[in-house]
């Protein structure tokens, strides 16, 4: 393979790696959004199947008096509906996904930039060599 063909193949591969990084960062963004929905939005709980008047619960994060945190001690069903471990598991899953996405995106972007720099230096060397008597 000639140098130019190899360089173009290297840039294509770097672009694919960067695209995988963007994809993983998109997945991590969805996981962060899901975690935010679990923690920040109010929700309703059925006390029995097909309950016509479900109990309204405050969001898990902004609860001051405990509709989500005190639980069944007061006859409150909110605690069991949205549990902290679920939100933390989603958040924990997003950490390695975003780490891998950052690594792949950075590797792909830097590889592509280094390839462009190398080509520019090669062209400058050719121009400099052509001008010398």
Describe the structure.
With 133 residues, the protein is mainly alpha-helical. It is 68% helix and 5% strand. The chain is built from three helices and two strands; from the N terminus they run αββαα. It has helices spanning 3-40, 78-81, 84-131; strands at 43-45, 55-57. A two-stranded antiparallel ribbon has the order 1-2. Helix 1 runs antiparallel to helix 3 (84-131). It is rod-shaped, with a radius of gyration of 27 Å. 11% of the residues are buried.
In short:
The protein is mostly helical.
Task: List the topology elements.
Blueprint: H1 3-40, E1 43-45, E2 55-57, H2 78-81, H3 84-131
Antiparallel strand pairs: 1-2
Helix pairs in contact: 1-3
What features would you highlight for this structure?
133 residues; two-stranded antiparallel ribbon; 68% helix; rod-shaped; 2 strands; mainly alpha; single chain
Overall pLDDT confidence: 81
In total, how many beta strands? Answer: 2
Order of strands in the sheet with the most strands? 1-2
Beta-strand percentage? under 5%
- Described by its quaternary structure, the protein is single chain
Order of helices and strands: HEEHH
Shape: rod-shaped
Query: What is the straight-line distance between the termini?
Result: 32 Å
Share in helix: 55-70%
What's the main sheet like? 2 strands, antiparallel
- Counting DSSP H or I runs of 4 or more residues, the number of helices is 3
Task: Supply Rg.
Answer: 27 Å
**Poorly predicted segments:** none
The chain-level structural class is mainly alpha
């Amino acid at each position: 393979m000639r140098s130019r063909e190899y360089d173009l193949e290297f840039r294509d591969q770097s672009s694919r790696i960067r695209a995988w990084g963007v994809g993983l960062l998109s997945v991590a963004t969805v996981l962060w959004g899901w975690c935010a929905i679990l923690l920040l939005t109010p929700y309703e709980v059925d006390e029995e199947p097909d309950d016509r008047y479900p109990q309204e619960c405050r969001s898990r994060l902004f609860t001051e008096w405990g509709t989500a945190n005190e639980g069944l001690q007061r006859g409150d069903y909110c605690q069991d509906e949205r549990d902290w471990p679920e939100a933390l598991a989603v958040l924990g899953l997003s950490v390695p996904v975003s780490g891998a996405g950052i690594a792949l995106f950075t590797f792909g972007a830097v590889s592509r930039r280094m390839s462009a720099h190398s080509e520019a230096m090669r062209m400058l060397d050719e121009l400099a060599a052509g001008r010398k008597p």
